[in-house]
Design goal:
- One of its GO terms (molecular function) is hydrolase activity.
- This is Patatin.
- InterPro entries: Acyl_Trfase/lysoPLipase, PNPLA_dom.
- Keywords: Hydrolase, Lipid degradation, Lipid metabolism.
- By secondary structure, the chain is of the alpha/beta class.
- The strands form 2 sheets. Strands 1, 2, 3, 4 and 5 form a 5-stranded mixed beta sheet that branches.
- The longest helix is centred in the last third of the chain and has 23 residues.
Length: 264
């Protein structure tokens, strides 16, 4: 929740400062980035998207925000150095399948309501997912045959919080289970800007991915201390969205000078 809000605010702040990243030739979205990447690729109005994120919301029924205990359990498995990465991802996949969460149809409907389009937009949009059965990561695009809402819903299906999504008879979960930011998937890019709301979890891997891309100019953007404070202790808490989007707007405008020589 907060990652999407901050990400949109950041892009809008950069746009206001005259550095629109929305003209990217390739957009690679993972987890929260799958929603934001789709909005960007579809040409959505960033100002309108930011306005929507700024609206105050109440937790359903006045209940407290759900605690991300199962997600944190998944993260501990992924970060276990004794496990090969793909084995760790497969274990998390089993945890995701066993979790008692909302049904898949409701999750797809929820994601579909966030998207301005339900068909793949023109251009090169790539969304990262992970197979729950074997931990294999996969990149979905317009040629993959996956319906766009299913691809987005799968890419941000946080294990233990959202249900895995069925595509072509396989069940897929959050692309963030791959760890890193998918920057290595931008191989051959001339310019690469990586926006990672949770970069602190795996910064070294992200930096290595950026180097592996071979891009001539690269920049990693992550939340600053004030933005992390705006996120609060639970990144899935919708009540924190207005604070997160404001933090993104501020940071985007402040970072324009650093982004401009990379992008323009």
């Amino acid at each position: 929740m907060t990652g999407i809000a901050w990400h949109l605010g950041l892009l809008c702040g950069l746009q206001r400062a005259g550095v629109p990243l929305t003209d990217a030739g390739t957009v690679i979205g993972t987890s929260a980035g799958s929603v934001v990447g789709t909005l960007v690729a579809a040409g959505a109005d960033l100002e309108a998207a930011v306005h929507a994120q700024q609206q105050e919301v109440a937790r359903p029924g006045g209940r407290p925000a759900p605690r991300p205990g199962s997600w944190l359990a998944s993260l501990s498995v992924l970060l276990d150095p004794s496990l090969p990465p793909r084995e760790a991802r497969a274990r998390v996949g089993a945890m995701a399948l066993a979790a008692s969460t909302q049904d898949e149809a409701s999750w797809l409907a929820r994601i579909g309501g966030l998207l301005p389009v339900h068909e793949w937009p023109a251009g090169d949009l790539r969304l990262v997912v992970v197979d729950t059965a074997d931990g294999q990561d996969r990149v979905l695009d317009a040629a993959s045959g996956a319906p766009l809402p299913h691809a987005v819903a799968a890419s941000c299906a946080v294990p233990g919080l959202m249900p895995p999504v069925t595509i072509g008879g396989r069940r897929y979960m959050d692309g963030g289970v791959r760890l890193g930011a998918g920057a290595d998937l931008a191989a051959g890019a001339e310019r690469l800007v990586v926006i990672a709301p949770m970069a602190a979890l795996d910064r070294d891997r992200i930096v290595a991915e950026m180097a592996a891309s071979g891009a001539g100019k690269t920049l990693l953007i992550e939340p600053d201390a004030a933005a992390l404070e705006a996120f609060g202790p639970d990144v899935m808490d919708p009540v924190r969205r207005p604070a997160a989007v404001r933090a993104g707007l501020r940071q985007g405008e402040e970072l324009a000078g650093a982004v401009r020589p990379i992008w323009c």
